[in-house]
Amino acid sequence: MTVKCVLFDLDGTFADTAADLHSALNQVLTQEGREEIPFEKVRPAVSHGSRAMLKVAFDIEPEDPGYTELQQQFLRIYANNIAVLTKPFDGMETLIEELEVRGIHWGIVTNKPAWLTDALMQKLGLDNRASAIVSGDTTPHAKPHPLPILHACQQTGIDPSQAIYVGDAVRDIEAGRNAGTKTLVALFGYLDENDDPLAWRADGQISHPMEILKWVD
Predict the structure, then answer these.
(1) For the segment 13-29, what is each residue's pLDDT rounded down to a tens digit?
(2) Is 9 a catalytic residue?
(3) Catalytic: 59?
(4) Which of 40, 100, 188, 209 lies at a 20 to 30 A Cα distance from 3?
(5) Do 137 and 113 meet the contact criterion of CB atoms below 8 Å apart?
């Protein structure tokens, strides 16, 4: 297989966003008169979005009274502090530089809504370098549906069979597999103790971004 494109999940794969999300969540807890929660409790939930993080902090579901208000409060605080501590994972910037030198496209496919994805990528100064940025509301379906990955491949002009999708959650691997890409699990991402990456049937696992080059080669 000739790899012509590498696509990444955003939170927990491309960028280490957990600290800023944890901070925003604790601000909501404080405003609601509750005790803050430790970082270690929040980190594994980050890849699963605001619903999972609010579940950890407030034990609340979308159908519960007050959920929408809490979610809006959380996202508003996060949006105003979206890249205070966030940065690409160690080695990621070196990796994308190498991909660019080789003429290999790279992009983002995330379930994060576009208004947050675009703001974060702009703050990181990487929005104009990505060949594709597909958010959770870019297409009619979000991951684990394959459509977002297929849309990113269409944007880059690359056939899915010539692409790799890298993620840190089972939905990422399922989406990539169903889209027809190769798939890699980012073990440095936001996995929790109950995750079993081997059961996700990815093509491989990586402990550092630069290991992706082995699959490109």
Answers:
(1) 999 999 999 999 999 99
(2) yes
(3) no
(4) 188
(5) yes
